[in-house]
Design goal:
heterodimer; A: 375 residues; mainly beta; Neuraminidase; four-stranded antiparallel sheet; 39% strand; B: 133 residues; mainly alpha; 2 strands; elongated
């Protein structure tokens, strides 16, 4: 009894010490919800990513390797997809349109691919156009190597910045001591390319012998949130930590985000990875989560449909099955709120061109968030 | 004397085959532990405890221990229907993991022989390949 009391005391003390941002790590549950989820696309398994076509229809990726066109309330399967390596967390992943899609018709997809000589797979980025219900003009713009049969950490989200540069994330593929800190290896990185796949000459590691010059930032674990902050023009990202230590970061050119040398997380077994949360030359997160929420999908609210949420960040939680709303002040999280509690594993979230927020939930479908009518 | 010798040889060969079975089970469990750390641990957690009402436990799970073939099929093909584990209902989806038959046998042997779970019959790749949806 005494022993357990001592352990409890130690636990509390260590817990407090480890929380340098204690208030931000408390999540609030609102007593009333001002918005309600309406099921917009039903019966989806793992809707990993989705995007909106100019005519209001939707393209949805299913992780198992299907691309679905949702138009006039009907689902159609898109044909002529690339070969997808479906294993563990790998499959057909994110989808994004070129900012000038109306003129050039380019669609960008991320997926795991077994292309290459080694057994296994790694993340690839492809662009293609849609003709009727088939992909045409397919071009693989990037393929990470070497393949591995490991089941985890493929990334991957795709986003364009204001100058039409293409950014995407690739996770460290379960090789944390090998990949993330090595700019000569793929994985654990955020990449930047021109929209046609060329490597920008001002990428940070261009000119370094045998570096992977598509790399824009490194030291990441598994980023599955990547957005453009439409006001500042910055690229924001979040990534899965191990047990504890999920992070939000603002992505800077050539920066090292520290995994696995610095982290707020520990091994799944509870043992220590490192006792360091900061180190010279490494970026510290804008926000970290303890415990991990397993973040997937990210959106920046700019629309007038949600005046109370303007400027907030929304992040899906796979683990706790809700959508999280983060209020920021001077690039610090000052308030966290649980919305759509117990809705299911939130995989992706986006603000549509109509200004409404859409939320993809595993095993359910895609929900549209609509304001509750006032009495 | 002849009988004794025959018995002796029989005894030796039987114990060797047991030993062989044991080492191959242990090796399978070891490989299965790696598969578990790769593919299963994020949801079912380190000690197979799962997350209440979200991801069912594997440790002392009546569902796993009483439904060997069904469990193999869940790992092989995924599953999406309500199940009851140790009296609690779970209604989440588990995707197919893309594992090879040998890997499924290994991870089955690991989860059937960890966290106080025990099974006296080893799962083989052949058993996995014959478990068809």
């Amino acid at each position: 009894m005494k022993k357990s009391a001592l352990y409890f005391y130690l636990f509390v003390v260590i817990h407090h010490l480890s929380f340098s941002q204690a208030t931000e790590n408390k999540i609030n549950t609102p007593s009333t919800n001002i918005y309600s989820p309406m099921l917009f696309v039903d019966e989806l398994q793992i809707p990993w990513g989705f995007t909106f076509l100019p005519d209001g229809s939707m393209l949805i990726t299913e992780k198992k390797g299907e691309l679905i066109l949702f138009k006039d309330n009907k689902k159609q399967k898109i044909g002529n997809l690339p070969d997808v390596y479906v294993r563990g967390q790998g499959g057909l992943l994110d989808i994004e349109l070129h900012p000038n899609f109306k003129e050039n018709g380019w669609i960008y997809l991320s997926f795991s691919s077994s292309k290459g000589k080694n057994k296994g797979g790694h993340t690839a980025i492809l662009r293609a156009q849609l003709k009727d219900t088939s992909l045409v003009q397919k071009e693989v713009l990037y393929k990470a190597y070497p393949n591995t049969t490991k089941g985890q950490h493929f990334g991957s989200r795709i986003v364009f910045d204001k100058d039409n540069y293409l950014y995407f994330s690739i996770g460290e593929r379960g090789a944390r001591d090998v990949n993330p800190q090595d700019i000569k290896r793929d994985g654990g990185k955020i990449y930047r390319l021109h929209d046609d796949g060329r490597i920008p000459l001002d990428n940070p590691f261009v000119g370094i012998d045998s570096a992977k010059t598509a790399i824009y930032s490194y030291g990441h674990r598994n980023p599955q949130g990547l957005i453009l902050h439409t006001i500042t023009g910055e690229i924001w990202s979040h990534e899965h930590g191990p047990k504890g230590g999920d992070e939000i970061n603002i992505i800077k050119k050539g920066a090292n985000y520290g995994w696995p040398l610095i982290t707020y997380g520990v091994n799944y077994s509870g043992t220590l990875i490192t006792d360091k949360t900061k180190m010279k030359g490494m970026e510290e997160p804008l926000h970290y989560w303890i415990p991990s929420i397993a973040p997937s999908g990210m959106a920046f609210v700019t629309s007038d449909k949600y005046p109370e949420w303007k400027g907030n960040i929304l992040v899906g939680s796979l683990k706790f099955q809700y959508l999280e709303r983060l209020v920021l002040k001077d690039n610090k999280v000052v308030y966290r709120e649980k919305i759509l509690a117990d809705l299911g594993r939130v995989r992706a979230v986006k603000q549509g061109p109509d200004g409404f927020i859409y939320v993809a939930v595993e095993g359910k479908g895609i929900y549209k968030l609509i304001p509750n009518t006032k009495n | 004397m002849k009988i004794l010798a025959t018995l002796y040889i029989l005894f030796i060969s039987i114990s060797f085959s047991f030993l062989k079975q044991e080492t191959s089970l242990e090796e399978s469990i070891q490989r299965g532990q790696e598969i578990y750390a790769d593919f299963c641990i994020t949801c079912h957690l380190e000690k197979g405890e799962g997350i209440p009402s979200t991801f069912p436990p594997l440790a002392k799970s009546d569902y796993l221990l009483n439904n060997r073939t069904v469990s193999i099929k869940v790992i092989k093909y995924g599953q999406q229907e309500e199940i009851t584990v140790n009296g609690q209902t779970y209604n989440n989806m588990m995707p197919a993991l893309g594992l090879e038959d040998e890997e499924i046998a290994d991870v089955m042997n690991y989860i059937l022989n960890s966290w106080e779970n025990t099974s006296n019959k080893m799962v083989t790749p052949e058993e996995v390949s014959s478990a068809i949806e």
